[in-house]
Amino acid sequence: MAEEIGGADAAAELRTCVVLGGSGCIGRALVGRLLKLGNWYVRVVGSTENPQLLPLESRLRRAFSGGRASYFQADVRRKDQIIRAIEGASVVFYTGHVDSFLDDFHSCYTIIVQGTKNIIDACRECKVKQLIYNSSADVVFHGLRDIRNGNESMPQSDQFKDLITDLKAQSESLILSANDIDGLLTCVLRPCNVFGPGEKDLLPSLLSLAQSSWAKFIIGSAHNLSDFTFVDNVAHAHICAEESLSSRMASVGGKVFFITNMEPVKFWEFASLLLEGLGYGRYSYQLLPFIIDSYDIICCWKVTTDTVSNLLK
């Protein structure tokens, strides 16, 4: 609202930004941070007819009523709808997520890859200056070897863990190849294991495990480290990317950046702390693989089949 940014004179200097995927976890956090900064008109773009506000989103509710924010329904598979949503904006944050078509290749492809093509084309037509894409650190991980102190010089994997990651990698390539064409500057952010309010991937999967019989088991040494990223830090990274692109820093345009809390922790320790906070217990049994010879690691567990069956009861 005007009083938050210094009155009518300041309001006249506001720029317009668009958050595509604004109803997702990262999108909501980013919208909140943009409104708090006070120098943006924010267009929130989602796939539903009306914005579905959470109880804690009072700032966004006030912004809608006060004209500091507006909501657009758009399907990224429809370029005309994207153009309607982004026309007149100087920057587009694409935080889109897919959580309804995980087993449908055609839907995933048309939303993630074809949708990205449509967004790039729409940005060019509307003379948008900056496009910032939220991807995933998973695009460089293939599960065959550990990544220690990985950096942006790592190539994309040639063996992805799931369909969504594969398609996100394709979208990354499209975004990066569009940099500095028709005045559009682009960059890609790769957060790792995002957690926080509204997150619908990491915590729900841990809850599903905790509520199953398999919650008693941990497979492996339990010493594997992983990076986790609080959603507000991801939102902050988007703001930093926009500021850097605005200053036309050569080190940002057309580049990718890993985003983490910079505090690697043991995965199962982190998961256990989350679940304990929700009233669930820690795992009770550890299943360890052993080496058959110097070349082959066979997944044989140090418990018998009968033991596992009894533990699952």
What does this structure look like?
The N terminus and C terminus are likely disordered. Strand 14 and strand 15 form a beta hairpin. The chain has a seven-stranded parallel β-sheet with strand order 3-2-1-4-5-6-11, sandwiched between helices. Strands 7-10 form a two-stranded parallel sheet. It is built from eleven helices and 15 strands. The chain is 38% helix and 18% strand. It is an alpha/beta fold. Helix 6 packs parallel to helix 7. It has one domain: NAD(P)-binding Rossmann-like Domain (Rossmann fold, 3-Layer(aba) Sandwich). The termini are far apart. 30% of the residues are buried.
| Unreliable segments of 5+ consecutive residues | 1-10, 291-313
Number of strands: 15
In DSSP terms (H or I, runs of 4 or more residues), the helix count works out at 11
The proportion of strand residues reads 15-25%
Mean pLDDT: 81
Biggest β-sheet: strands ordered side by side in the sheet: 3-2-1-4-5-6-11
Q: What is the name of the CATH superfamily? A: NAD(P)-binding Rossmann-like Domain
Class computed from helices, strands and strand pairing: alpha/beta
Could you describe the largest sheet, including whether it forms a barrel? 7 strands, parallel
Family: Belongs to the 3-beta-HSD family.
GO molecular function, one term: oxidoreductase activity, acting on the CH-OH group of donors, NAD or NADP as acceptor
Protein name: 3beta-hydroxysteroid-dehydrogenase/decarboxylase isoform 3
Keywords: NADP, Oxidoreductase
Q: Topology, pairings included?
A:
Blueprint: H1 2-5, H2 8-11, E1 15-20, H3 25-37, E2 40-46, H4 58-66, E3 69-73, H5 79-86, E4 91-94, H6 105-125, E5 130-134, H7 163-177, E6 185-191, E7 194-195, H8 202-210, E8 217-219, E9 225-226, E10 229-230, H9 231-246, E11 256-259, E12 265-266, H10 267-277, E13 285-287, E14 290-291, E15 297-298, H11 305-312
Parallel strand pairs: 1-2, 1-4, 2-3, 4-5, 5-6, 6-11, 7-10, 8-13
Antiparallel strand pairs: 9-12, 14-15
